[in-house]
């Protein structure tokens, strides 16, 4: 019965398919996340705003206005007070606008937080620039301390005509445990 | 060459015979089916009345999670791998699977995987409770500590499936009898060949998803953690990139089984064989490009919603081709309704209902209402239970005489079918109504207006559960004391190489390949 089993071509099939399976694993772990983030950055569909922006053009388009609304969310059981000082501003595209967010550590231990931005509608994501934002850095805060955190932003003059209102939300995460002890120690 | 199986229990541990391994897979699958079914009974017993009566909500979540995982990975998938092991070599005229030792390994990994998974029920923190879709961060940040056992279990299941698939492809591509060209292969072999390619493409993605979870939980990465720059929505994309092909992995071999049974009991060849092959391949291809229809509510741009909506609806076209082919096969046939045929006809009707509700769910704006309600539960049980479970039950009744040389009791088979059929519909049809009325899935309690339908649904579930015990009884009595049969063709209308073999099928078959015209 062994005579008619084509051993070498079975081995070849086995090899090809194993390479295929390993290739798909590599694709899932090492390619899918970067591809996903690249697509999100390109189109803005993730609502994730970009990092620090260096403004070059200082002209302001006074012919139109865009309303920008601010939302804050505490992730899970994050115990801080966290809110925008103003919930809504109206700006001209091109104009640099500064607003502040208030945070208070309502616990008796020193903590570190990280704010994560999300913007809607998605087609405004790549036209919303931040020249200064508390979300660029981790935010340590001693027990019972409070702070006003800055955000300076410019709505791009090329923002699609259909966008009249932008909603920017920040979710505040407690990252005390995952930050190295140094950061917390510096506070003390 | 005439030697038979080894003696004693060692036969089952060390066997490399495709029939033995097929038997092991089928019994393992049935054991998992009873366990997953028991979890379902716990769920339905709790939902019999509103309020909490029997179990705690935390345990309810463990039950829904374990029910889904055990049924998908433990019952349905191994059932079809078992059928593939038994039938593919016999249908293509091969002496055994191409890689018999790996075949043994891929089976014996499975009991290990499910021991690890079910052991979590007895551990501190309880079993996984985040649903069978294990969305991050429920399965990462908020998971019970047993999640690591779950991850390891999934890795093992994935390894087993990949090895099984490699074996099936290697067998089908290299070991067909001379003269059996690809387009002469039986449909069950075709559907399994395509399924095996799907498995090799997506099981590693599932392994990747749980590996990223493992890294996030234990090694401080942030694949799915927004605070660290990751994105939980990424998890859903990776999961459904695996998950959508997975549902076709479950249903394609079922299509293959039905494509054998309907012609046999219609006494006509399968209508539109080549269109069946192309339809199967098209479904498999489309399954890779529609995954985000499970995620209409994550906040996709309108273009994305439209694309995934239309692409999903497109799958209805090849699927309808199959349904019409089955109906055309029956048209003007000399139909008889033995138990396998009853199951096959029920499959066609109920699977089509499940397909239609699938099209309803594909409509992105309507899905906002249907998402995560009992309507979805009803939909996927119509395609998975009436699809995969009915067809594998049909396959067992159809091929059992060939496997054992004993005939099952036709009356008992029909009784079992009708109890199961009625029980199934009483369970799941009302779930369409409560789903449309807004009852969310995965909750241990519900608003009072859903009470009546839930009580009916639970009653149906107990009836359906009983029917499965009757199925077990039927199979055991057939093996022990069924009427012996010896003619090669159990069913006069059945075609295919397996029916040219003696009954019961000898331990070694086709040691010299048959000639295929």
Please tell me about this protein's structure:
The complex is a heterodimer of chains A (188) and B (517). Chain A is α+β, with helices and mostly antiparallel strands and 188 residues long. Chain A folds into two domains: 2-43; 66-187, Ctag/Cox11 (Pfam 04442), CATH 2.60.370. In chain A, 23% of the residues lie in helices and 35% in strands. In chain A, strands 3-1-9-5-7 form a five-stranded mixed sheet. The longest helix of chain A has 37 residues, at 7-43. Chain B has a two-stranded antiparallel ribbon. In chain B, helix 3 (57-92) packs across helix 7. Chain B has one domain (29-500): Cytochrome c oxidase-like, subunit I domain (Cytochrome C Oxidase, Chain A), CATH 1.20.210. With 517 residues, chain B is mostly helical. Chain B is globular. Chain B has 15 helices and two strands. Chain A binds chain B through residues 1, 4-6, 9-10, 13-14, 17-18, 20-25, 27-29, 32-33, 36-37, 40, 43, 45-48, 75-76, 114, 116, 120, 122-123, 171, 173-175, 178, and chain B through 1, 95, 98-99, 141, 162, 165-166, 169-170, 173-175, 200-205, 207-209, 211-212, 220, 223, 226-228, 230-231, 233-234, 237-238, 241, 299-301, 304, 508, 511-513.
- CATH superfamily annotation of the largest domain in chain A: Ctag/Cox11
Kindly, what is the distance between the CA atoms of the first and last residues of chain B, rounded to a whole number of angstroms? Answer: 26 Å
The value of Rg of chain A in angstroms is 24 Å
Query: Order of strands across the widest beta sheet of chain B?
Result: 1-2
- Name of the CATH first level of the largest domain in chain A: Mainly Beta
CATH architecture of chain B: Up-down Bundle
Give the SSE map:
The complex is a heterodimer of chains A (188) and B (517).
Chain A: H1 7-43, E1 66-74, E2 81-84, E3 88-91, E4 96-104, E5 111-120, E6 128-133, E7 139-141, E8 146-155, E9 165-174, H2 181-187
Parallel strand pairs in A: 1-9
Antiparallel strand pairs in A: 1-3, 2-4, 4-8, 5-7, 5-9, 6-8
Chain B: H1 10-14, H2 18-46, H3 57-92, H4 100-119, H5 147-174, H6 187-218, H7 232-266, H8 273-286, H9 302-314, H10 316-330, H11 339-362, H12 364-370, H13 374-404, E1 406-407, H14 410-436, H15 451-481, E2 483-484
Helix pairs in contact in B: 2-3, 2-4, 2-15, 3-5, 3-7, 3-13, 4-5, 5-6, 6-7, 6-8, 7-10, 7-11, 7-13, 8-10, 10-11, 11-13, 11-14, 13-14, 13-15, 14-15
């Amino acid at each position: 019965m062994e005579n008619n089993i084509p051993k070498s071509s079975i081995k070849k099939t086995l090899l090809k398919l194993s390479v295929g399976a390993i290739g798909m694993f590599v694709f899932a772990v090492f390619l899918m996340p970067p591809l996903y983030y690249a697509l999100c950055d390109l189109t803005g569909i993730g609502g994730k705003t970009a990092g620090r922006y260096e403004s070059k053009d200082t002209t302001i388009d006074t012919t139109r206005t865009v309303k920008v609304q601010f939302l804050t969310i505490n992730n899970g059981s994050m115990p801080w007070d966290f809110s925008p000082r103003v919930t809504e501003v109206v700006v001209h595209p091109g104009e640099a606008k500064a607003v502040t967010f208030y945070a208070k550590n309502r616990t008796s231990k020193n903590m570190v937080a990280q704010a994560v931005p999300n913007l809607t509608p998605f087609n405004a994501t790549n036209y919303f620039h931040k020249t200064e934002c508390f979300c660029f850095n981790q935010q340590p805060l001693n027990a019972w301390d409070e702070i006003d955190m800055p955000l300076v932003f410019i709505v791009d003059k090329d923002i699609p005509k259909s966008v009249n209102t932008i909603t920017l939300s920040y979710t505040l995460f407690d990252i005390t445990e995952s930050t190295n002890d140094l950061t917390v120690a510096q506070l003390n | 060459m005439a030697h038979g199986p080894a003696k004693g229990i060692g036969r089952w541990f060390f066997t490399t015979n495709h029939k033995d391994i097929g038997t092991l897979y089928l019994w393992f699958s049935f054991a998992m089916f009873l366990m997953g079914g028991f979890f379902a009974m716990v769920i339905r017993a709790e939902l019999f009345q509103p309020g909490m009566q029997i179990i705690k909500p935390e345990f309810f979540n463990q039950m829904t999670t374990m029910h889904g995982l055990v049924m998908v990975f433990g019952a349905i998938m191994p059932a079809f791998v078992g059928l593939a092991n038994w039938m593919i070599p016999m249908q293509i005229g091969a002496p055994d699977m191409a890689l018999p030792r790996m075949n043994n390994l891929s089976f014996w990994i499975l009991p290990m995987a499910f021991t690890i998974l079910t052991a979590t029920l007895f551990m501190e923190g309880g079993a996984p409770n985040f649903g069978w879709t294990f969305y991050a961060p429920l399965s990462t940040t908020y998971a019970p500590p047993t999640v690591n056992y779950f991850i390891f279990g999934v890795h093992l299941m994935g390894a087993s499936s990949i090895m099984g698939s490699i074996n099936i492809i290697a067998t089908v591509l290299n070991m067909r009898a001379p003269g059996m060209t690809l387009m002469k292969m039986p449909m069950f072999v075709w559907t399994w060949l395509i399924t095996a390619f799907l498995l090799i493409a997506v099981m590693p993605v599932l392994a990747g998803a749980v590996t990223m979870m493992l890294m996030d939980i234990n090694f401080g990465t942030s694949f799915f953690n927004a605070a660290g720059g990751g994105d939980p929505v990424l998890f859903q994309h990776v999961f459904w990139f695996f998950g959508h092909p997975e549902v076709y992995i479950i249903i394609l071999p079922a299509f293959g089984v039905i494509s054998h049974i309907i012609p046999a009991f219609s006494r006509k060849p399968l209508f539109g064989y080549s269109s069946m092959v192309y339809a199967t391949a098209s479904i498999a291809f489309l399954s890779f490009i529609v995954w985000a229809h499970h995620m209409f509510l994550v906040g996709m741009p309108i273009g994305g919603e439209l694309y995934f909506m239309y692409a999903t609806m497109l799958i209805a076209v090849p699927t309808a081709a199959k349904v019409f082919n089955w109906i055309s096969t029956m048209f003007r046939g000399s139909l008889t309704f033995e138990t396998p045929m009853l199951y096959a006809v029920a499959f066609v009707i109920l699977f089509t209902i499940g397909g239609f509700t699938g099209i309803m769910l594909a409509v992105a704006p309507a899905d906002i209402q249907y998402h995560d309600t009992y309507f979805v539960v009803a939909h996927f049980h119509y395609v998975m239970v009436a699809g995969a479970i009915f067809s594998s039950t049909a396959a067992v009744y159809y091929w059992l005489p060939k496997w054992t040389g004993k005939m099952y009791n036709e009356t008992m088979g029909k009784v079992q079918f009708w109890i199961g059929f009625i029980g199934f519909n009483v369970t799941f049809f009302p779930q369409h109504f409560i789903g449309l009325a807004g009852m969310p899935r995965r909750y241990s309690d519900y608003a009072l207006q859903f009470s009546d339908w839930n009580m009916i649904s639970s009653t149906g579930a107990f009836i359906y559960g009983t029917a499965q015990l009757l199925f077990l009884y039927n199979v055991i009595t057939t093996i022990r004391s069924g009427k012996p049969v010896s003619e090669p063709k159990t069913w006069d209308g059945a075609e295919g190489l397996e029916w040219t073999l003696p009954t019961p099928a000898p331990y070694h078959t086709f040691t010299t390949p048959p000639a295929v015209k």
